[in-house]
Specification:
alpha/beta, 6-stranded mixed sheet, 3-stranded mixed sheet, 11 helices, 9 strands, globular, binds ligand LG6FSS7D, mitochondrion, lipid metabolism, acetylation
């Protein structure tokens, strides 16, 4: 195809597929790049973008909007200069109200199914630390660019909790079985360069602007690929993991609730929260 025809097609798709977004997001900034129609979704829940019910619900909504508008792609990033997201909001798990916890976990399942299984391509511009649920969101994306000198990984065992099977499958879709086992059993957080070495991220960046530039460049790979072929191929690779969770959704919620409410697990979370607070006090 001639370059001029390609850019004409791209302009046409810009006009017809321009996504419409709710302006009511409180914890997200959503913007569309005029050059390539890629949407950047920026997590904006200070101080650490911890994933509570509100933030998860908004991410779920924006993913639905992007799918409906046949978006050509999405970049996930953060408004913080040092945290991509600190993972699940520990306050949602500490002494949880069972009904609220069920809604929270359901929202997390929704986000995972929509992001991991999105028909449009996705990239994470990881401009800060990405522990636990933060690593999960990044791994759901198809491509990861990470700013140097931050940490990423599924560190659940360090908190005395167990990463659910769908977290594990997401890591297995990203790095080797061997590296997944070692990383999960030790709750390892990888520095950016270590993450690159095992393939947990695809590229390193010097800063957020560089990460966004590299993430945007990823989508150029699909300019000549029919979106339907792309989407079906992704579904062939990831669809069965999503079906497994769909079938076991209620059971997963119940199992997680009974695990999280165990006194030993609650004590572990309290200890971890105290460590986070002490860190701040000893730094002051
Ligand atoms: C069976 C159930 C399976 C459940 C699966 C769970 C997956 C998860 O995602 S569990 C969450 C795991 N997250 C973490 O381990 C990260 C903990 N946080 C950190 O390591 C650090 O905060 C940071 C490296 C992300 C950022 O460090 P920084 O120095 O910039 O900030 P802090 O001073 O540590 O934190 C500021 C503030 O935020 C609170 N906070 C931090 N993380 C969380 C969190 N995940 N949930 C709720 N709140 C969090 C921290 O306590 C501070 O609060 P105060 O300002 O009130 O002291």
């Amino acid at each position: 195809m001639m370059a001029s025809t390609r850019s004409l097609l791209r302009t046409k798709s810009l006009i017809s597929n321009l996504p419409r977004f709710s302006s009511n997001y409180k914890c997200l900034d959503v913007s569309v790049n005029n050059d390539n129609n890629i949407t950047t979704v920026t997590l904006k829940r200070p101080p650490v973008n911890s994933l509570n019910l509100d933030l998860l619900s908004e991410i779920s909504d924006v993913l639905t909007d992007l799918k409906k508008s046949k978006s050509p792609g999405m970049i996930l990033t953060s408004s913080s200069d040092k945290v991509f997201t600190a993972g699940l909001d520990i306050m949602e798990m500490h002494k949880p109200d069972p009904e609220r916890f069920k809604q929270f976990w359901y929202a997390l399942q929704d986000v995972w199914m929509k992001l991991y299984g999105s028909p449009f391509p996705t990239a994470a511009a990881i401009n800060g630390h990405a522990p636990a649920g933060g690593c999960l969101l990044a791994m759901c994306c198809e491509y990861r660019v990470m700013v140097q000198n931050f940490n990423i990984g599924l560190n659940e065992t360090q908190l005395g909790i167990v990463a659910p099977i769908w977290f594990i499958k997401t890591m297995l879709n990203t790095i080797s079985i061997r590296d997944t086992e070692l990383a999960l059993t030790t709750g390892r957080l990888f520095k950016t360069d270590e993450a690159l070495a095992v393939g947990l991220i695809d590229e390193m960046a010097t800063d957020k602007a560089d990460a966004l530039k590299k993430a945007n460049a990823f989508f150029e790979r699909f300019e000549m690929i029919p979106p339907i072929a792309r989407a079906y191929t992704k579904d062939s690779l990831r669809g069965s993991d999503i079906e497994d969770l769909k079938k076991n959704r209620e059971k997963d919620i119940q199992t997680t609730l009974s695990l999280i409410t165990q006194p030993k697990v609650q004590q572990g979370l309290e200890f971890y929260l105290a460590l986070l607070k002490n860190k701040k006090e000893s730094a002051a």
